[in-house]
TrEMBL record:
Name of the protein in its database record: Aryl-alcohol dehydrogenase
Native source species: Sandarakinorhabdus glacialis
Superkingdom per UniProt: Bacteria
Pfam families from the UniProt entry: Aldo_ket_red
Cellular component per GO, a single term: cytosol
NADP-dependent oxidoreductase domain sequence ranges: 23-301
Length: 311
């Protein structure tokens, strides 16, 4: 029986020239003042074969730190170890303003990108994404400033996060640079992109898909649950964990790696964003490449997640 196999080889991010690993490392909880500890996490991700790093200017307040803190910490790592920047495809996001909450106006996008560049201590952000859509900004105006920033070399490529397919299409209509990636929430506990057209649209247009919270905010597997969040145990989650555990045992890997592998087995080439800040767990993410699926096995895990049989 044919198996779906995974490869650690880097590939182009959508239609861009950026060559990225099949997994990314997310920096939502990248925090603190210890630059050596921060650099160790960066190096752990690189050692696991991950060269694609995803941060955002809003990462900080959720960790009781200032706006921009995660970018600033990464900037300090780059300042002390400049060679690391050249090894990384750096993605960031903007467009969320404290208390507003969303702003994709041309003036704010330009200010947000330039502030991120300063915090990161870099001349260019490889992938800059609109973090959440601003319903009060016309996509033509948003596209205009993004195209200008690409032309100025301040960002290399444009993506969107948490956009509906219609919102992505509207921006694409005006954006000469093109949208190279979308970033929805996607896991076995958040399967909407399988059914709402997100993955189909991405495959149709050659757009990369980055999956945030691939372990269901820590509710699945052996990763790090979100601080302060009670890990729910119900029949559905227990069923998914059991299915992942049983499948992963065939390959000697844990639940988290199996969950990443299940996501990556989809033909859209989905890139799960590993959120752990534990160096050992970051290293274990590479176990995902050991896992194989038959169609029957892949669909059985999906059925466990849905809690009902497919039609």
């Amino acid at each position: 029986m044919d198996h779906i196999a995974l490869s650690p080889e880097r590939r182009a991010l959508g239609k861009s020239h950026l060559m990225v690993s099949p997994m990314a490392w997310g920096m939502w909880r990248f925090a603190g003042d210890d630059v050596n500890a921060a650099r160790a996490k960066v190096e752990a991700a690189l050692a696991a074969g991950i060269n694609f790093f995803d941060t955002a200017d809003i990462y900080g307040p959720d960790n009781d730190e200032p706006f921009g803190a995660a970018e600033a910490l990464l900037g300090r790592v780059f300042a002390e170890s400049p060679a690391l920047r050249d090894q990384i495809v750096l993605a960031s996001k903007g467009g969320i303003r404290m208390g507003v909450p969303y702003d994709s106006s041309p003036a704010y996008i330009r200010a947000a990108v330039e502030a991120s560049l300063t915090r990161l201590g870099t001349e260019q952000i490889d992938l800059w994404q609109i973090h959440r859509p601003d319903m009060l900004s016309h996509p033509a105006e948003t596209a205009g400033v993004l195209d200008a920033l690409v032309g100025e070399g301040k960002i290399a490529a444009v993506g969107v996060s948490n956009h509906t397919n219609a919102q992505t299409s509207a921006l694409s209509r005006y954006l000469r640079a093109g949208i190279v990636s979308v970033q929805p929430e996607f896991s076995l506990l958040a399967t909407a992109p399988l059914f709402d057209g997100t993955l189909d649209r991405a495959m149709k247009h050659g757009v990369a898909v980055m999956a945030w919270s691939p372990l269901g905010q820590g509710r699945l597997g052996d990763g790090d649950p979100r601080p302060g969040r009670r890990v729910a145990v119900d029949t559905q989650i227990a069923g998914v964990q059991s299915a992942l555990l049983a499948h992963g045992e065939q390959y000697g890997v844990g639940i988290a790696a199996t969950a990443y592998a299940w996501i990556m087995a989809h033909p859209a080439g989905i890139i799960p964003i590993v959120g752990s800040q534990n160096s050992a767990r970051i290293a274990e993410s590479a176990d995902a490449y050991k896992v194989r699926f038959t169609r029957t096995e892949w669909y059985a895990i999906l059925t466990a997640a849905l809690g009902e049989n497919l039609p």
